[in-house]
Automatic annotation (TrEMBL):
Transmembrane helix in keyword set: yes
Single GO molecular function: phosphorelay sensor kinase activity
Domain of life: Bacteria
Reactions this protein catalyses: ATP + protein L-histidine = ADP + protein N-phospho-L-histidine
Enzyme class: transferase
UniProt name for this protein: histidine kinase
Domain named Histidine kinase: residues: 41-257
Residues of the full protein shown: 196 to 463 of 463
Coiled-coil residues: 14-41
Annotated membrane topology: Multi-pass membrane protein
Length: 268
């Protein structure tokens, strides 16, 4: 157990060395705590679908259900839970690769409009099924230096959340060129997230309490993956939200300007 704390009594080298060791011990403890919490979460998330599958499979195996409709329903639940397990495991795998810095990013100069348009097209059907309109306003912007598949993954993930959590209204996607770079904004008229909960939503497995009910699908890992992808490509992600009004995610990537290209070629 690392509950070590060396008393720091002097201001000389020994004092600062002791302080440094104390800081390191504290950091290590935090790392260990986070890790245990992470494993506890993983176990819980994996266990829940398995418990459902076991339960319904047992009932079917014991031939306790006579009604065919009922049987079909149980089989569907089992299949849905298996699908959910698969999604969680894929997300975990992706996240672990990212944390080890093992994902291959094929960074290149990209014009984001067509990627955003393609992402919107892909989720259009899902939005229509819920009677949600996707509005978009995509202005011409400078190129950015990203992996186009990963950019699509980021946008699809944010759009998927917006559609899943919004009951009625619309989703607005915009692309603009601002002083700090190219900004992609995805805004919805969903339930919103409270100020207290907002800072936590990028944490692994974090779900806002009221939507913790499994009804919304999702693994609680989506935004962690999105944030990690954005940061690894030199971007930033921000969120603003108001309960009862909606949520806006803003993803920014530095634009490639002629001066950044020049400094790049100078380095070579
Ligand atoms: P999940 O797979 O549960 O959607 P995410 O990591 O994508 O996990 O999101 C974390 C949590 O943040 C969600 O469970 C939800 O409570 C909240 N959230 C994310 N996007 C939105 C949104 N557009 N509107 C309201 N709540 C959201």
């Amino acid at each position: 157990e690392l509950n070590l704390e060396i008393p720091v009594e002097t201001k000389d080298e020994i004092g600062s060395l002791s302080q440094a060791i104390n800081d390191l011990a504290k950091e290590l403890k935090q790392y260990r705590d986070n890790r245990s919490e992470f494993f506890a979460n993983v176990s819980h998330e994996l266990k829940t679908p398995i418990t459902y599958m076991e339960g319904y499979a047992d009932i079917l195996a014991k031939d306790l259900v006579e009604n065919d409709e009922e049987k079909k329903k149980y089989l569907q639940i089992i299949s849905e839970e298996a699908r959910r397990l698969n999604v969680i495991i894929n997300d975990l795998f992706e996240l672990s690769k990212m944390e080890e810095g093992k994902i291959d990013l094929k960074l290149m100069s990209v014009e984001p409009t067509s990627i955003i348009q393609r992402s919107i097209d892909k989720v259009q059907l899902k939005a229509q099924e819920k009677d949600l309109t996707i509005r978009s306003k995509l202005s011409p912007v400078p190129h950015i230096f990203v992996d186009s598949n990963r950019l699509e993954q980021i946008i699809l993930n944010l759009l998927d959340n917006a559609i899943r959590y919004t009951a009625e209204g619309y989703i607005q996607v915009s692309l603009t060129s601002e002083l700090e770079g190219v900004v992609i904004s995805i805004c919805d008229t969903g339930p919103g997230i409270s100020t207290e909960e907002l800072p936590n939503i990028f944490e692994r497995f974090y779900r806002v309490e009221k939507s913790r009910s499994r009804a919304y699908g999702g693994t609680g890992l989506g935004l962690s993956i999105v944030q990690s992808l954005v940061l690894q490509q030199g971007g930033t992600i921000h969120v603003e939200s108001k309960i009862g009004e909606g949520t806006r995610f803003k993803v920014m990537f530095p634009s490639i300007t002629s001066s950044s290209l020049k400094s790049h070629s100078f380095k070579i």
